[in-house]
Amino acid sequence: MRIDIKDNQGNPRLTVHVDPANPPTVVKATDGRGPAISLDWDKALDDKGNLRHCPVCGCPEFYLKKNVPQLTVFALIVAAAVIAMVFYGFGLSTPALIVLAVVLGLDLLIYLYAKRYLVCYRCQSEFHDTPLLPTDKAWDANLAERFAPPKDASRGAAEPAPDPPAAPPSS
Fold first, then answer.
1. Contact 136, 62 (CB under 8 A)
2. 72-95: b or e for each residue (b if 16 or more CB lie within 10 Å)?
3. What dihedral do alpha carbons 145, 149, 150, 153 form, nearest 10°?
4. Cα 12 from chain centre
5. Per-residue H/E/C for the chain
6. Which keywords does the record carry (predicted)?
7. The whole model's pTM is what?
8. pLDDT tens digits, residue range 6-61?
9. Adjacent-strand bridge partners of 51
10. Which of 62, 76, 83 lies closest to 138, judged by CA?
11. Opening angle at CA 70, ends 69 and 76, nearest 5
12. What is d(CA 40, CA 59) in angstroms, rounded to the nearest whole number?
């Protein structure tokens, strides 16, 4: 199992390869820099070796994500669109439609065969090469909101209204 541990902002912090049969309780970067990170495996794996809780933060909820090479697919679609426009420009609509159909088929194949992995809702750590369960679902906005870090009270809060001016002294 490969674990990509993220920091509080969701940036990659550390990648470790773990043997689920003998998981480590503490991991550290191979270059020795950075703090050691404790992993709690007591509730993380069930008897069959399936991931039930995040060993990094203890969150019981994960969502499925597909490992789709976004830049490759985008470049493929742009190239096909340009080729199709050139064909249309020369009045060749059948080859243009064939190019678009081929790209649609390739895009569908990439999506269907892309590897899936689990992501923790709370700490955003990614768990690759781990068995997936039928109960593992795609991202859910309600669960994401439930495990989102608390918002800073100073951000987004309305500024307090200024005190009204003092009434002029009556004579």
1. yes
2. ebeebeeebeeebeebeeeeeeee
3. -120
4. 11
5. CEEEEECCCCCEEEEEECCCCCCCCEECCCCCCCCCEECCCCCCECCCCCECCCCCCCCCCEEEEECCCHHHHHHHHHHHHHHHHHHHHCCCHHHHHHHHHHHHHHHHHHHHHCCEEEEECCCCCEEECCCCCCCCCECCHHHHHHHCCCCCCCCCCCCCCCCCCCCCCCC
6. Membrane, Transmembrane, Transmembrane helix
7. 0.72
8. 877 778 888 889 888 888 888 887 776 777 888 999 888 888 888 999 999 999 99
9. 45
10. 62
11. 95
12. 11
Do 3 and 12 meet the contact criterion of CB atoms below 8 Å apart? no
Distances (CA, A) of 71 to 52, 59, 68, 77, 78: 32, 31, 9, 10, 11
pLDDT in tens, 120-141: 999 999 999 998 888 889 989 9
Question: What pLDDT is stored for residue 165 in this prediction?
Answer: 52
Amino acid at 36: A
Asked if residue 119 lies in contact with residue 63, where contact means CB atoms within 8 angstroms, the answer is yes
